[in-house]
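One such shown below:
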Amino acid sequence: MEVYWERLTTKTFQEQVLNQIDTAILPCGSVEAHGMHCPLGTDNIAPIEFAARLESLYPDRLLVLPAVPYGHTWDLAQWPGTISVSNRAFSQYVGEVGTNLSRWGIRNIILMNGHGGNVGALQEAMEPMAEAGMRAVLVNWWLDYSQDILTITTGQGHAGEDETAVMLAMAKDWVRMDDASFNPYKPKFRVKAQGIQDKSLRHATTGDGRLGTKEKGDKIIEVVISRLSTLLMDLWQDNLFTEVR
């Protein structure tokens, strides 16, 4: 069965989906500079691909929604090609999309996020979904599975080794490794101020993109999909908590 929401007809949705499939994935990302070497759509490419791979594993149990491609990326707004929306607009938009799903029998929504600047807004967007009787799960793949990723790479970062590796595995024709660079500056604490991006986001990166390889990317994707599969199983089995003794 076709499980991409926008490809279904209303008749097919009514006959094969309505009140039969209760889980949907909403990829969320951004359009922003990723170093000088990764595509502007990096944060969309990754969550969309993760959703597609999960769809191939569980075609009868989940639906994949059209992605929300624009996110909040104030810190990178000065680099050419970046498109940023406000936290408020992004949160409200995602929240309304999510709550609408409950009308059509969706109980579980996975917010498959690819962009760090979206995290706070997505957490806020989950609240109206919960109030609508849904269970909303936020996945930030590079954060939630960081320990696994660091068994494959020597470091992480925006347009750094891990993200560059994943792009080489997913969209190698759009990556320009000759332009990959390293940012040696690490901020001592979280701060926003005019003009500090030249160091905090030198060349629009916070890591070392030069170390990314397709082989590392393939391994990262494999472990992320494995972890996401476990997440789905736990969700479907109502196994939402780990007991600490």
Summary: The radius of gyration is 18 Å. The domain at 5-236 is CATH 3.40.50.10310 (Rossmann fold).
